[in-house]
Amino acid sequence: MGFIMKTYFITGIGTDVGKTVVAAILTEALEADYWKPIQAGDIENSDTIKVQNLISNSKTVFHKESYQLTQPMSPHAAAKIDNIEIDLTKISIPETENNLIIEGAGGLMVPLNDSQLIIDLIKKIDVETILVSQNYLGSINHTILSLESLKVKKLKVAGIIFNGNENRETEQYILNYTGVKFLGRINNHTAINKEVVLSYKNEFHSL
Predict the structure, then answer these.
(1) Structural domain contains residue 1
(2) pTM beyond cutoff 0.85
(3) Which of 116, 113, 110, 108 is nearest to 155 (CA)?
(4) Does residue 71 sit within a domain?
(5) Which residues are designated catalytic?
């Protein structure tokens, strides 16, 4: 049997919960290609560039964004400022014979245009989702709501990665209530660099 390629869409329970760090770690662990379909703002230091700077292997290919928006705000609003409309029919998974990590923008309910959200993009490209959760007051609510939304849309969930210090009570409740698979944890680090990213390779290489 040949090697089966894996494609994962990395989404979070909100903004700034560590999607890009998780995406970099999984890209390195799987020696996967990386693709961020929609970048809003920070074009000179985009998530693609950030992940490029954290990767050690030479196999990863970085695919061009479908949309590069100039303003660091919700994609639907940033697109209006740039006088364009995000069209899901124009977003297609890049062709590759490698594993692929796809990074979303914000959480599942982030609007892309007047009628479609990030979750609709996931449904269109039809790949397994990995949810990134971080412990804070309200994170149980945000995590369960995110997983319920994925279930309602009948989307495939590979599992959940917790980013940051462990909160056993919170995490066990989420895992017990949802039945979602625990894929691993990213610890708190004072700085994220290539060495830190590489240190997780063994933990996640068999995803």
Answers:
(1) no
(2) yes
(3) 108
(4) yes
(5) 36
